[in-house]
Amino acid sequence: MKSPQDLIRFLLPVAVFAAGLLLWEAIVRAYGIQPYVLPSPLLVLKTLVADWPILSQSLGVTLLTTLEGFVAAAVGGVVLALLFNQSKWLEYSLFPYAVVLQVTPVIAIAPLLLIYLQQQTAVIVCAWIVAFFPVLSNTTLGLSSVDRNLAGLFQLYGASRLQTLLFLKLPAALPYILGGLRIAGGLSLIGAVVAEIAAGSAGAGSGLAFRIAESGYRLNIPRMFAALLLLSLAGIVIYGVLALVSHLLLRRWHESALGKDS
Amino acid sequence: MVESTVPEADASSSAVRLRGVTKTYDSGVMALGPLDLDVKRGEFVSLLGPSGCGKSTALRIIAGLAAPSIGTVELAHHDTERRGSHRIGFVFQEPTLMPWATVRDNVRLPLKLARAPVADAEMRIGAALDQVGLAEFARAYPRELSGGMKMRVSLARALVTDPDILLMDEPFAALDEITRFRLNNDLLSLWRDLHKTVIFVTHSVFESVYLSERVIVMTARPGRIGAEFRITSTEPRGEEFRTSAEYAAFCREVSRALAPSYAGQAGA
Q1: How far, in Å, CA of A189 to CA of A170, rounded?
Q2: Which residues of A touch B100 (CB under 8 A)?
Q3: B163 pLDDT exceeds 80?
Q4: Out of A155, A171, A258, closest to residue B100 by CB
Q5: Residues of B with Cβ-Cβ distance to A170 under 8 angstroms
């Protein structure tokens, strides 16, 4: 927040948000809308505080699932891309299936997974399915966009495959990998939520998305909103953390991180 | 500081010998040759020609980065057992640095790939950075350097392996004139001090005459040797030489020999 310009850019969306809340509150009061149709923002906040014990526990469950799915997607995506990069045959054999997995809506796959896998495993697999593809495709792109002359230099100096991978391809691909991870963070949350909702309709569950589904059946709309609010906040925090990590790793050398601290 | 590995008796023998080298692309286009070329140890030779005449291809073939379609390439024996020594140093048209690594780590690359002993490597990196005048910038990242300084890093990386042969592919083409003149002079003094064999690819008549002992003018695609000039000067190379009548006369002669290579090209 250095220049007035920055201040305005920060204040404008905040002002819009506040105005929206005020309008919402006013409409609910003016028309006497019942909480089970549309709760006022104030009531949502009260519910969030009152139900915090149960909601925070659910938040923990969902975040853990998201994290597990994200880690699986990050490791799976990068490792698969590395294998593809080392063997064209492997890439030709498997890449179409990665695409199929990506384009099939996860909401349609989730009920099937719940039949064959334990619920907790199924939820993590869902998060993985949604999140691994951007990591895979970005890493693949990064590994193959190495400067041709730099590759020639490694060849000239007799670099081994492992040396070329470690000292040339991986560092060159890092900005792409981080871009993929940033997308995967949000997607693994979506995957976890979708799977929880699918599982929720089948019975057991304890994550935030399950709370939303459950509150819906009980017409506890304020709690639905409170849980939704927490999910949004979780998504924002995940994105922020990954963007920060990316910035810290790239700030010394990559174009995308320039101009922010220089 | 740097010892010459070339014994006096061998000083006149060939460092590079090409016989009947051609390069034909998969598309069937013949890019180069047939080319016969002998470069003596310690000689400074320029390959001068229009874009697309295959001079860069010739350089890549000498470096082993590309294989000739026909013909043979012989390089003088590299007589050192020192880890991280390399027969060839290559400088590309672009600086070709790793943006994620500091100047020092960029120069270290050839030694790291050869697993040279660390203490020895540090000493050699320091010496190479001194040679190109960048000792103070060892910890900088490439993006913090000017175009000329990046080129110096690239040169230091080529020199750090103490190569016998320095191959340079239009290294200063993208630089402004003042910077190019300074790097020309620095390259000449490095060449005099280090006794390297230099093969310098350029499309600038002035640069080739200024730097070289011998200028080889190449024809348009497929590139062959069109003419050869031995550049002898009574005065040492420097700003004096650059403005002398002698230099102007050489440039005129070389330009005249180069003209047919551009004949038939649009805009020539």
Answers
A1: 27
A2: 171-172, 174, 252-254
A3: yes
A4: A171
A5: none
Q: Could you report the per-residue pLDDT of B199-210, keeping only the tens digit for each?
A: 999 988 888 989
Task: Write the pLDDT tens digit of every residue in A48-107.
Answer: 999 999 999 999 989 998 999 999 999 999 999 999 998 889 989 988 998 898 888 888
Using an 8 Å CB-CB cutoff, list chain A residues near B101. Answer: 171, 253
Which of A168, A253, A258, A260 would best serve as a mutation to test chain B binding (most B beta carbons within 10 A)? A253
- Cβ(B18)–Cβ(B73) under 8 Å? yes
Nearest CA in chain A to B97: A150
Residue B4 DSSP one-character state: P
B62-to-B36, B151, B172, B196, B197 alpha-carbon distances in Å: 12, 21, 20, 15, 13
Nearest CA in chain A to B113: A159
Question: How would you classify residue B78: left for phi > 0, otherwise alpha for psi between -120 and 50, otherwise beta?
Answer: beta
- Residues from A contacting B (CB-CB < 8 Å) are 147, 149-150, 152-159, 163, 167-168, 171-172, 174, 252-255, 258
The closest alpha carbon to A156, from B109, B97, B5, belongs to B109
Measure the CA angle with vertex A74, ends A71 and A78; round to 5°.
145
CA distance A73 to A133: 8
Question: For residue B4, how many other CB atoms are within 10 A of its CB?
Answer: 15
B48-105 pLDDT, tens digit per residue, is 988 778 888 889 999 988 888 888 888 887 666 677 778 889 999 889 999 999 999 9
Return d(Cα A184, Cα A242) in angstroms, integer. 10
Angle subtended at Cα B133 by Cα B132 and Cα B135, rounded to the nearest 5 degrees: 110
Q: Where are the domains of chain B?
A: 1-76+164-268, 94-163
* CB distance B80 to B5 below 8 Å: yes
Report which DSSP code applies to B10.
G
Q: Give yes or no for residue A260 having a pLDDT over 50.
A: no
User: HEC states along B208-242?
Assistant: HHHHCCEEEEECCCCECEEEEEECCCCCCCCHHHH
Best B59, B103, B113, B159 member to test A by mutation, with max A CBs in 10 Å, is: B113
Would you tell me which CATH number, out of the four given (3.40.50.300, 3.40.50.800, 2.130.10.10, 2.40.50.140), belongs to the domain B1-76+164-268?
Answer: 3.40.50.300
My answer on whether omega of the bond before B142 falls inside 30° of 0, hence cis, is no
Residues 6+ apart with CB under 8 A from A138: A77, A176, A177, A179, A180, A183
In angstroms and rounded to an integer, the radius of gyration of the C-alpha atoms of chain A is 23
Its ipTM equals 0.84
Domains and CATH numbers, chain A: 42-250 (1.10.3720.10)
Short-list B67, B124, B111, B88, CA closest to B198: B88
